[in-house]
Design a protein that fits this description.
By secondary structure, the chain is mainly alpha-helical. It has a single domain, classed as Oxo-4-hydroxy-4-carboxy-5-ureidoimidazoline decarboxylase (UraD-like), CATH 1.10.3330. It is built from 9 helices and no strands. α5 packs across α9. The two termini are 22 Å apart.
């Protein structure tokens, strides 16, 4: 089968470690990357997204939390060890923060802290196309979720982020 995307064609030929390293910034979960690499060859964007979703949905909460930890907090720069491509994507995804007021940024920082105390992880949201005010409203709404509902919502947000990043990765 002919592979329409050169990034996919090249990735399919990489050794295992290089293939994992190449795709890991799209999600941040080592197990997700390992399992996706095992599914090669992947021939189309649609196949890649479908397989990514299947792997992501079958992972454990520990794997999901690993992916969540690969993101900076909304409104903050990454400070710990990080994958450069992931950091660049996060900065672009959170571009709605640039035009936000000091009050909104402060409320997001306070909300992030409250969220972390309540759920034990950072607040994760697919920030692309959202204003800081929209992210703040979402954060405040999600603070009312029970732990299981919120985990499922965070998992879905990460799935959306991963899909966006996979599309960006294909265009590199």
């Amino acid at each position: 089968m002919t592979i329409a995307n050169q990034t996919l064609a090249d990735w399919n030929k990489l050794d295992r470690a290089s293939a994992v390293s190449s795709i890991l910034p799209c999600c941040g979960s080592a197990r997700w990357a390992d399992e996706l690499v095992e599914m090669r060859p992947i021939h189309t964007e649609a196949q890649l997204l479908e397989r990514s979703d299947a792997v992501w949905g079958a992972l454990s909460p520990d794997d999901w939390n690993e992916a969540f930890r690969s993101h900076p907090r909304i409104g903050q720069r990454q400070t710990g060890p990080v994958i450069a491509q992931s950091t660049e994507w996060s900065r672009n995804e959170q571009s709605g923060m640039v035009r936000s007021s000091t009050e909104v940024r402060s409320a997001l920082e306070e909300g992030n802290q409250h969220y972390e105390r309540r759920f034990g992880r950072i607040y994760i949201v697919c920030a692309t196309g959202k204003s800081a005010e929209e992210m703040l409203a979402d954060l405040q709404r999600r603070l009312h979720n029970d732990a299981e509902t919120e985990l499922r919502e965070a998992v879905e947000q990460q799935r959306q982020i991963t899909r966006l990043r996979l599309r960006k990765w294909l265009d590199l």
